Amino acid sequence: MPKIDIPYIDKLAHFVEYFILGALLVRAFANSSDKANFKMILLLSILIAAAYGALDEFHQRFVSGRSPEIFDIISDIIGSLFGALVSLHKEKGSRAIDNTV
To answer: What is the pTM of this model?
Structure first.
């Protein structure tokens, strides 16, 4: 793989990947029930994404040439938080429209 010499580009990649994961988790939970508890959906989505990120970093301890980093986990959590919030806002808006029709 080519080496990219942009400072902290890996943190941005973690943020984007977990932004998508957080958004998809919210969408999956919101569409799994007619009576969605948005606070619970947000909490579960962030916790699942954070746990997945932490386990991924732990796994890197056992992979040659890779090492776990706490700032990767932080980027994962922040990305999933933002993705979940954006998706949750969208889900709430679409439910309000659906309820009025």
So the answer is: 0.85
